[in-house]
Amino acid sequence: MKAISFRNRSFVVRSILVLVYIAVVIIMLMTGKRHTILIDNKDSEDGSILAIDGMSVQIDNQEAFEYYPGDRDKAIVQGQKHKVKVEIFADGKIVESAFSVPLGQDMVLLEVPKLIAGVEPYLKPFTVLQEQDSSPAVDSPQSIQFGGDSPVVDETALEVPPDAVLPQ
Amino acid sequence: MFSEYAVVIIFLVITIAAISPSGLSLTYIIQELITRLGRNSFLVISLLLPIYSGMGLNFAMSLGAMAGQIGLIFAVDWSVAGWQGLVFALLIGLPIAVFLGWICGKVMNKAKGREMVTGYILAFFINGIYQFFVLYMMGSVIPMRNASILLSRGYGIRNTLNLESVRQSLDTIFMLKLGGFDVPVVTLIIIALLCVFIVWFKKTKLGQDMRAVGQDMTVAEAAGIPVEKTRIVAIIISTVLACAGQLIFLQNMGNLATYNAHDQTSFFAAAAILVGGASVTHASIPNVFIGVILLHAMFIVSPLAGQNLFGSAMVGEYFRQFIGYGVIALSLVLYAWKSRKAIFNSRSDLRGGAAGKGKDEGGQA
After folding, report:
1. Domain ranges of chain B
2. Domain B6-341, CATH
3. What are the φ/ψ torsions at residue A71 (nearest 5 degrees)?
4. 0.85 surpassed by complex ipTM
5. How far is the alpha carbon of A88 from chain B, nearest alpha carbon, in Å?
């Protein structure tokens, strides 16, 4: 009976340790994950909200930068919850807001004119299209090195089809 | 007396002699030494426990280094930056290091008395698996989020990873300006804590068991100490410490040579501890720091000394490699010589002080 209770206790302690371990991994991921915030000062797509003619935008405690219509810049932040402080040059109005970046989102677009106008959502996911060329270029056969940055070249892909017209 | 400190004395003389031809200022050398002390000490300390356990220099510590690198690749892939990125990498690498350490311990228990060469070859074997994992599995079987770290073919990690997100994140948490020198306080505190842990651990039951196993396995077995288990635990702890040590090393360097950063980890760590006056059977914490300072002082001055003396920095670089391997060889030769001498002395004691006497002089064969 004693042995069973000891085994149970040991199991509970180990389970708690595993849970704590996983929790620390998640906390590190949430607090350490970097996100890119694209700070955008452009007219909205339907033209209902116009870009702001001169403002400074500060994300968290980073340096504030000036933006004029059509400007877009980026700020790299760590963690999920952030503050934005906007100062409009024309009337000296200061707008402060807090927002949260989804954990799985590497890049978000912060549309400042929408934020100032109080239109939601002013933060939207932004994905850079990355296309990987699946086949190697025929005219640039590269040396194959172990661990090298060159793609593994398929020899058959480099062969010229028999009916191909070769440039003279 | 000389044979006991031969390596330290030789090294000290060479390094001091090379300072003047190198033309480097003392301020520069000291600053570099402080940086390298923070960068390398943790890795070298990870060699201590296997030496206490009589397993010699743990050349398989590069298994831990590989585990740390895998953790770091995932930290970069997930864009986990700062010290959190290092902790994240450590937590990812930790189970891998424990598993690899367990395998290593099991293998070494099958090769008692030949642990060093076994560890060295085992590191080559695991390196093959690491290469397969990183070069083929990552990006194909294991999904990777960050396409910029992948090879252009779409899978496999690039040759060199930029660790900008975690670069010196530990060192710069609190960088103290002390007399014109930058001192990475947090890194040094972590190393100091590890030293305290080693001192404490030696006094625990497990630590005492390790020392007993290191002294004599047969006697330890007879005393009821689980020899094989104790040896496995020593190697696991060493591998885990090597994992953390490699992370400290890489965060300071700021980039990761994906396929060969771990190659010479054990070699330079072993060279450092031997230069510090340790042997295959005896090592202490002071040996670690003396070794790191001496070895790296020579690493700092030798390329420029070679450049100025022989007109080629490559001579200094060659000299560095030559000294690294040479010091290991010299230590092993001295150890073998001392062991033979000790055996000879003990035999002659058993013969009743007939040391040195041959058959003709009345000694027994």
Report:
1. 6-341
2. 1.10.3470
3. -80, 145
4. no
5. 32
Tokens read off for A54: 């001169």
Model pTM score: 0.84
pLDDT band at A168 (very low <50, low <70, confident <90, very high): very low
In tens, the pLDDT along B117-157 reads 999 999 999 999 999 999 999 999 999 988 899 999 999 99
**Model confidence pLDDT, tens digit, residues A48-91:** 889 999 999 999 999 999 999 999 999 999 999 999 999 999 88
CATH 2.60.40: does it fit domain A34-125?
yes
Confirm or reject contact between A20 and chain B (CB < 8 A).
no
Distance of CA B20 to the CA centre of its chain: 29
Answer whether A107's CB lies under 8 Å from A39's CB.
no
Q: Is B341 on the interface with A (CB under 8 A)?
A: no
Contact A50, A113 (CB under 8 A): yes
Angle among Cα B275, B277, B283 to the nearest 5 degrees reads 115
Q: B82: which chain A residues are within 8 Å (Cβ-Cβ)?
A: 32, 78
Q: Which amino acid is at A47?
A: G
Q: What residue segments make up the domains of chain A, in order of their start? A: 1-32, 34-125
Q: Is A150 on the interface with B (CB under 8 A)?
A: yes
Pick B81's closest partner by Cβ from A34, A130, A133: A34
Give the nearest partner residue to B135 out of A32, A35, A147, using CB atoms: A147
A133, pLDDT greater than 50: no
